[in-house]
Design a protein that fits this description.
The chain is mostly helical. The protein has helices at 15-25, 47-59, 70-87, 101-105, and strands spanning 6-8, 13-14. It has one domain. The protein has a two-stranded antiparallel sheet. Helix 1 packs across helix 2. The structure holds FE2/S2 (inorganic) cluster. Residues 8-10, 40-46, 77 line the site of FE2/S2 (inorganic) cluster.
């Protein structure tokens, strides 16, 4: 994911804007990233990436999960919304929980 790619697709918040927000505002919790143009307060798809960005900002640790590409992020959100909408239908069963964003990317932690 590049700096100008949108992390929060609902509110069009770029990674660059979030990084700048963290540098200037120094949020103490990841949830405070929502103060940056509402990031994470729409569908919820980007929340795990917001948490990851926050954690990286706190630790400066670059040993992390690989980030999704912009296209992976967008297509993952489309699947997430589709699954979420389907599971919200009255006929959905409790076993039909939507996948987490990390599952949808197919990335795993490095060993
Ligand atoms: S993509 Fe960020 S809340 Fe939907």
């Amino acid at each position: 994911m590049e700096l100008d790619d949108e992390v929060c697709l609902c509110f069009h918040v770029s990674k660059r804007k979030l990084v700048q927000f963290m540098r200037v505002q120094k949020p103490r919790r990841a949830t405070q990233l929502s103060l940056c143009s509402g990031a994470g307060t729409g569908c919820g798809w980007c929340v795990k990436i917001l948490q990851r960005l926050f954690d990286q900002g706190q630790t400066g640790d670059d040993d992390r999960l690989p980030e999704p590409t912009s296209e992976e992020h967008r297509s993952g959100r489309a699947r997430y919304l589709e699954t979420r909408d389907r599971s919200a239908a009255p006929a959905a069963s409790p076993q039909d929980d939507p996948p987490t964003p990390e599952d949808s990317y197919g990335h795993s932690r490095p060993h």
